[in-house]
Amino acid sequence: MKMRKGVIMQAKLKYIVGIVSFAAFIASCSSTKNLKEGESLYVKGNVIVDSDTISKENKEKIATHLEAALMPKPNKRLAGVPFKLYFNNMAGDSAGNNIIKKFFKKIGEKPVLLSDVNREYNENLLRNRLENFGFFNAEVKSDTLVENKKATVNYTAKPNFIYRIRSVQFDIDSTTQLGKDIRSSSDKSLLQVGKNYSLDVILNERDRIDNDLKNKGYYYFSPDYILVQVDSSHRNNKVDMYVTVKKETPEQARVPSKINKIYVYPNYTETSSGYQRSTRNAELYDSSYYFIDRQHLYRKPVIANHIFFHPGDVYNRNAHNQTISHLVNLNSWKFVKNNFVDSKEVPNALDVYYYLTPLPKKSLRVELLGKMASVYNGTEVNVNWTLRNAFKGAEQLSFNVFGGYETQTGGSADLNSSYYRYGIEATLTFPRILSPFGRISPTRRFIPKTYVKGRYEFLNRRKAYTLNSIALDYGYIWQESEEKQHDLALMEITYVQPKGISENYQKQMDTIPALRHAIDPQFTIGPNYNFTFQNTMKQHLKNTFYFKGNLDLSGNILGLIKGADFNKGKTFKLFDAYFSQYIKISGDGRHYLKLSENSQLASRVSLGLSYSYGNSRSLPYLKQYYVGGPNSIRAFGARAIGPGTVAPEKLSNGLFYADQTGDIKLELNTEYRAKLAGFVHWAAFIDAGNVWLQRDDGNKPGGKFSKNFLNELAVGGGAGLRFDFTFLIIRTDMSIPFRIPYLPKGERWVFKDIDFGSSKWRKDNLMFNLAIGYPF
To answer: Which part of the chain is the Bacterial surface antigen (D15) domain (predicted)?
Structure first.
């Protein structure tokens, strides 16, 4: 491996050593030096669950839940260090007029003392929490351990026997409409015979009943009107439950409400006196909706299509929430507010008012990005101009002007490395499906979108060549459910033409034909479909999944019409470029196994297959697969592996050229992730994969896919830190190769060569990656 870091790596290691040294200095400070005689610093509250009948896993969960309730909280820590307390101690007892001490005092934190802990209060609190779990006869005791002025309070919780549900009765008058509606869903009750008593389940059951009634028109009903009485007087730790409606429930909450009139203010500005209900100049649309829009800034059918109420409908919470969700996701309004008001014309009816406060018609956003990797550094700027409600139907037109520069600051290749680029992209989005076959809506739950995109980019690889590229897209995006999304580009056109090929690059192409592939004129035309499934947002699940599949077709109809066949020399050009003809299928599947509250095992399988035929022998360069880099096989540089057992090309001056691509791809990754302290996490990982060619290539012997593909996988592994700031995750990974596929058979596993003490080995093999976000 010749493409490694040298000076850059040394600088980054010094930076890391500096951080560690500073942390060691902070840790050496005493957290108790400013305490008065007789005072002790409260450092922790431990809960020990003493039970022979509860499993170890459940005892840990109960203990974690109980510890979270303890008061007060100890001083905040990072990697075990109470850093805010140290800042407070550095400021001393009095900051005076010292600016630095005032600053430390401000960001610091006063010591939490043992005298601040009320053990009796915490014991009662823990007993109460255990009763909420169904342990009605729980016992809690505590004691204190003080060592070197640091105090730990240990609470021993003995749950004793848990109470279970013996019977559940809905004690409600079934002669009333309310009673009938509550009883009709009693088979879905969360209170089930044999289950543990739980206050949380009781509260959830009240919410379930309320939500069911809201969808049956009971707008004024509330969970607080449901009473669940518990009789625990029976032996054998059993309870009877009686679900009833409180007597003080108002009459208005006992009857369903209907929708009367619907008013829409699409261009509303809130006044100092609050939301107004003036209906002057209201225009009735479709016999259902009154619009107050004197300037006619919005087309009524577009907004009406996203309101799920009609006059005469029974109130429904789902329709209520879905309307708000749709109006917000039209991305035309800053605030969406609705009011339901008792109708003065019809009893048990509601008038609905929708107040829509527009976002600015035009907006300008500027982004400046920095890029840093082990070999490349650069910057990029994006200037985005957006026009909302472009044609009065919540359409969005945007223009993005971009430019960037990237240069090589390490490694051993300089050809085709540094570059600058600039371009413009225009996107027009419609919040509906535009089709010649009339209105099509895959689902009314989510807003489908039609998009039209155009993009031009100029790329100048200063020592090699320039590329002009144009891309045009027309397609649809729609969400089938919260977990499933579809993106269908009915027509995707890409056109790339090279210019300004340098004399040096031309000479390199003569000796390394693979370099010519990167600058071949390219023309692709055809549909492109993506399907995405993910349930990773369901954090309560132990196993969650992500999958993205892609089907990409190009030139298939053109190839049939022209009768293209490269085997017979019948190939054709469009706009001075041979059009590509292929079928390409890709899949990226991920599995996340939750091991504990603070750890998980993440795994990924990425597979890519393609078949080029007719007018093409292989995929065009921009569509080919590659592996390596900070989000792939991290022990190798991007595009530095494969195809197959092909070694990275060396140029005439001995420099390394990393641009290895293929028609088939297999990548496997697994990563153990765990929390260290606060926002600091760590991970250990193993990556494997390679790319291959569809057909034999005389310039790349060993690159074709074969039954021996598993013996040609590159493997690497390592560890790293993740700094999770919620809104931003900074990732550092250090990795080394375990298996190098282009070495001779029998020598590909390189464990025997690992030598961290050798500077040459470190330079050639140690790969450092700094990135934003998780790799998968």
So the answer is: 378-740
Closest CA to 334 of 392, 267, 430: 267
pLDDT digits (tens, 9 = 90+) for 174-222: 899 999 999 999 999 999 999 999 999 999 999 999 999 999 999 999 9
Same domain, 134 and 41: yes
Q: CB-based contacts of 596: which residues, under 8 Å, 6+ apart? A: none
56 class by beta-carbon count within 10 Å (0-12 exposed, 13-18 middle, 19+ buried) = exposed
Task: Tell me the residue ranges of DSSP E strands in 359-464.
Answer: 362-372, 376-388, 396-408, 419-430, 449-461
Q: Do 718 and 635 form a contact (C-beta atoms < 8 A)?
A: yes
Q: What share of the chain is helix, strand, coil (3-state, %, to 5)?
A: 20, 40, 40
> What is the β-pairing status of strands 349-358 and 258-265?
parallel
- Count the Cβ atoms, other than its own, within 10 Å of residue 323: 19
Sign of CA dihedral 91, 94, 100, 106: positive
Instruction: Decide the pairing of beta strands 729-739 and 714-724.
Output: antiparallel
Helices (H), 359-440: none
Summarised one tens digit per residue, pLDDT across range 228-276 is 999 988 778 999 999 999 999 999 999 999 999 999 999 998 776 677 7
Query: Position 357: which residue type?
Result: T
Q: Encoding tokens for residue 338?
A: 């609705």
Structure tokens at 612: 């080029």
CATH number at residue 60: 3.10.20.310
